[in-house]
Amino acid sequence: MKNKEIVVQFLLLVHIFAAFFFSAASCQSDSSSSSVVVAGYNMVVHAGSTMVLQCVSGRMVWTRDRVRDRQRVVHWDMYRDYPDYAMERVVDMFSAGDQRMYNSYNLGRVSLNPTAFKDGNFSLVIKDVTLNDRGLYSCNLYHIYCHLQETVRIQLNVTKSRRKEQRFWDGQKVVYVVLLGSTVVLPCINRRTVWIDSSNEEDQQVVHWDRQSPGVGQDHADRLVDLYASGEQRSYGPLFLQRKMNISNQAFAVGDFSLTIRDVQPTDQGMYSCHLHHHYCGLHERREFQVKVQPLTESKESAKALPAEEKDSTKAESPPQVINVILPDQRHQSVLPLAYMLTSLLLLAFIILIIIFIMRRLRAKGLTSFLRLENLCQRFIFFIQCCLFFRFTSTVINGSQQLRRV
């Protein structure tokens, strides 16, 4: 019973430790949930050098092309089963509401909701369905400004029997089986702000750099600089004022937010993170840089004159002296403690088996002799364990001392 209680207590401690560990990990993940880490780098630089932390993203480029009505577009495509799944453009529409048909046969028969970019309903309406309308349809949403694309696929089949009309999911897409000559609406609904609202396209873009000193958590990171698409820049601390750290003035024009650090010193070590936020486009990314600085190694020995510069330059050069140093084989020395331990364990197991065998034989003969022998065996086993422990400890200490001498 005592052994069972000890095991239960041990498992309880393990459970408590695991719960504490995962709760701490979850708290840490929640603290960094505002952005997703898309890249991580380990950088080692020499003191006094110039370091560039690359942080580039084309999705953060601020475009001013004055074509905001044409930066969002939806188009429907159809893939026929024959020949070779050829793609055919059905209709497209820009955010201004202008629709363009690619087949004159579909004029007045196929249409989109004119207010799709206001209410988020991009469904395709097909009237008087024919057998020629069968195929795989795809609703494609493009946002040129945000570099976004979303696609919805629907399979359309046509039947002549009303009893066969149905809608189901085949594991990859929705399948519509509609009656010949009827009207069908292929759904494509997306009410995300990025598709139905363009009032804040040029707002809410910000990039900032943080730095965590060694041993400091992310929640206590120091802010270095904030950059806004409007051109405003907020620097924190004296590093930017001294021009030690710098970011290009054309950052939002080219999408390059790299941080340049001049005259790197050991005090500049730590975790640097570049945070990219475009709230309108839904972009929240983070790039991390673990920076370590190595001091410059200078030779302490004074320069010595070459043999040719000696007073007597006519003397023949003496052959170089070679000193052979024989090092002991460290592999065998590192293996010896392990061999001693395994041999001792095998010997102990063999002795225990012999004792168990003798105890069983005596148990059948008499209880008194059995109890006496059991007490004696317990003391003997304890003595052997102590001997093995001290033997193993001394072996490990001797092995480590020999390795240090080598």
Automatic annotation (TrEMBL):
What sequence ranges are listed for the domain Ig-like?
A: 34-159, 181-290
**What's the protein's topology in the membrane?**
Single-pass type I membrane protein
Q: Where is this region: Disordered?
A: 298-317
Q: Which GO terms describe its cellular component?
A: cell surface; plasma membrane
Which positions carry the signal peptide feature in this UniProt record?
1-27
| Keyword hit for Ribosomal protein | no
What broad class describes the main subcellular location of this protein?
membrane
Quote the PROSITE patterns the UniProt record gives: IG_LIKE, PROKAR_LIPOPROTEIN
Which Pfam families has this protein been placed in?
A: V-set
Highest taxon of the lineage: Eukaryota
Record's subcellular location: Cell membrane
* Record-annotated membrane-spanning stretches: 338-359, 380-397
PANTHER family named in the record: MATRIX REMODELING-ASSOCIATED PROTEIN 8
Q: What is this protein called?
A: Matrix remodeling-associated protein 8
Which species is this record about?
Answer: Oryzias sinensis
